[in-house]
Amino acid sequence: MDERLALEDLQRRACLAREEYRRRLLDNPDVIDLPRAHLADGHVRVAERDGHTQGFAVVLPGRGGVFVLDGLFVEPGHWLCGIGRALVADACARLRQRGAARLEAVANLAAEGFYERLGFLPVATDVTAFGPARRMQLEIQDFPAGARQS
Predict the structure, then answer these.
(1) Residue 63 carries which DSSP code?
(2) In Å, how far are 16, 33, 74, 133 from 86, measured between CA atoms?
(3) Residue 111 and residue 115: Cα distance in Å, rounded?
(4) Phi-psi region of 66 (alpha: psi -120 to 50; beta: other; left: phi over 0)
(5) Which residues of 91-125 are buried (b: 16+ CB within 10 A; e: fewer)?
(6) In sequence order, which ranges of the chain are alpha helices (DSSP H)?
(7) Could you read off the pLDDT of 43-86 as tens digits, one per residue?
(8) How far is it, in rounded angstroms, from Cα 38 to Cα 104?
(9) What SS3 class is residue 145?
(10) Residue range 4-30: mean pLDDT, rounded
C-alpha cells in the first residue's frame, strides 16, 4: 500500500477511536488528507517498531521561528505508550538544530492534557472542522525540561 494512504488510514483509525469526532468524520471523510508534498519535502516523521508503523507527526515551517505540528497521530492500540511524546521529542530535537524557537499545535479537547504535560501552553482558541480547539505553543529549548510526567 502507498505510504501516504497507509498514514491516512492510521489517522482515520485514530480519529474514529474518539467518540466525540466519529460522526463528523464519517460525514466528512475528505478532512483526512496527507498531501504527497508533505512526504516528499520531509515534513513527515514516522514512528515504527518491528517494521510496523505506530504513529506519525507532520511538522511544517511557520514564520518567525515558529513551526507547526500540523498532525500527530498514534495507532489507538498504542496510545499511552510514549509514542506521541517520542514524536514531539524528535520534532523538537530536529527543530532545535535548525534554530527554531517554538512549536505550535492545535489541540482538540481530547489532546489538550497531552500537550500540557509536554509543556505546551495555550495561546488562542481556533475553530477546526471538528469544533473549537486550543492553539498551544512550546518553547523548543524548554523541551523536555518543561514536560511533566503523566
Answers:
(1) S
(2) 23, 23, 11, 23
(3) 6
(4) beta
(5) bbeebeeeebbbbbbbbbeebbebbbebbbeeeee
(6) 3-16, 19-27, 36-40, 83-97, 112-117
(7) 999 999 999 999 999 999 988 889 999 999 999 999 999 999 99
(8) 17
(9) coil
(10) 90
What is the grid cell recorded at 56? 506519525
The per-residue pLDDT for range 102-120, each reduced to its tens digit, is 999 999 888 999 999 999 9
C-alpha cell at 150: 503523566
User: Which triple of cell numbers denotes residue 18?
Assistant: 474518539
For residue 13, give Cα distances in angstroms to 21, 59, 73, 102: 11, 20, 9, 29
Angle at the Cα of 63 from the Cα atoms of 105 and 7, rounded to 5 degrees: 45
